[in-house]
Amino acid sequence: MKRKKKERQQLLIETLEKNPFITDEALAEMFDVSVQTIRLDRLELSIPEVRERIKHVAKERLDEIKALPLEEVIGEIIDLRLDQEAISIMDITEEHVFSRTGIARGHYLFAQANSLAVAIIDDELALTRKATIHFHRQVKAGERVVAKAIVTDSSAKQTVVEVTSKVNQEIVFHGEFMMYRSDSDTN
Amino acid sequence: MKRKKKERQQLLIETLEKNPFITDEALAEMFDVSVQTIRLDRLELSIPEVRERIKHVAKERLDEIKALPLEEVIGEIIDLRLDQEAISIMDITEEHVFSRTGIARGHYLFAQANSLAVAIIDDELALTRKATIHFHRQVKAGERVVAKAIVTDSSAKQTVVEVTSKVNQEIVFHGEFMMYRSDSDTN
DNA sequence: CCAGTCTTAGGACTAGGTACTAACATGTAG
DNA sequence: CTACATGTTAGTACCTAGTCCTAAGACTGG
């Protein structure tokens, strides 16, 4: 029976990590044990009751709201030919700009280009080693930035990706990214 | 008495918007009325009970988690001498890394450095014009990145900021940022 | 002064627990 | 086989933060 308990508790942890909103009663049904068993499990694992779990999630959110959001994958990739070419678009919103000037923060343009340079590489692991970048023109809220990446050199050691970002055909950003790939690296 | 009620209800709404975690009992004390009055107010205003309010906040957060966050001001500036030197720290967490490899995405390191280069400039408007950056070492979750920016050249036309980021004295990132400032630019 | 609004009080009930005691099943070691 | 440990289930009393409902005061304008 020992295995059963540990297994159940492991499952319990995983289940509540995915969805902290489940009551003991529902859990008891899920695992086909009594409510008391679930409570003992929670006690052993130091897992608080539903209401406390929910409160915890809610509090974390309130904290997060102060430290503002952005997308993880910056921009949306609309075309991708591995090791050749890729295109992504990013709409600049109020979140991306300096509130005083309305001009997009440089690191968002960099993030879009860098993300694209990583995405284009057909490998388990791609890392930026070096980059030379130019900001040609300011970008304002409401504008749509189209970034195009081209692999210009792909030796065994490293891959060079050139990224050009435009707003309405006008170049706003250009970067040359030296990328390392997992099958070529020592570091 | 009509004003008193409306006023209280308005205040109630505002109070709960700022902090949804307050119980009826605590509210009753705040407004110096009975708990029942608060409950009647909530009923009239269709405000759910604490536990439901908290649940709502928590659910919204779970939705947000899919569209991931990052800080607006990347890193925390701990020292700043305008046009001279500045230092910021950033703790790398799970949010900053590629889930497969645990290695921090390059644009976070860039964002920290770029933000610092912008902050160091004593001017209304500072923009990155060009940057040459090197990623010397991978940074993993749990590590603390300390970025130090130094203004190396400050002519009328442009300011050059060198940023060196370290983890435990070890250089992980270096960048040279050519910055334009508002009193020098045409664009 | 009386009606209508507002406020307060109290009782019965609920969900989702905690904390505790007690019974019982199962398995393993001596 | 007995004895003790581990695990499971059941039940009780109690808690918080409510809901829903009834009823009684308090205040105020006409």
TrEMBL record, chains A, B:
SUPFAM superfamilies attached to this UniProt entry: Thioesterase/thiol ester dehydrase-isomerase, Winged helix' DNA-binding domain
Tree of life domain: Bacteria
Transcription among keywords: yes
Family annotation (InterPro entries): DeoR_HTH, HotDog_dom_sf, Thioestr_dom, Transcription_factor_FapR, WH-like_DNA-bd_sf, WH_DNA-bd_sf
Location of the HTH deoR-type domain: 8-46
Coiled-coil region: none
Entry keyword set: DNA-binding, Fatty acid biosynthesis, Fatty acid metabolism, Lipid biosynthesis, Lipid metabolism, Repressor, Transcription, Transcription regulation
Domain Thioesterase: 104-164
Pfam families in the record: 4HBT, HTH_DeoR
CDD domains in UniProt: hot_dog
Stated role: Transcriptional factor involved in regulation of membrane lipid biosynthesis by repressing genes involved in fatty acid and phospholipid metabolism.
Family to which the UniProt record says this protein belongs: Belongs to the FapR family.
Protein name (record): Transcription factor FapR
Native source species: Aliibacillus thermotolerans
Organism ancestry: Bacteria, Bacillati, Bacillota, Bacilli, Bacillales
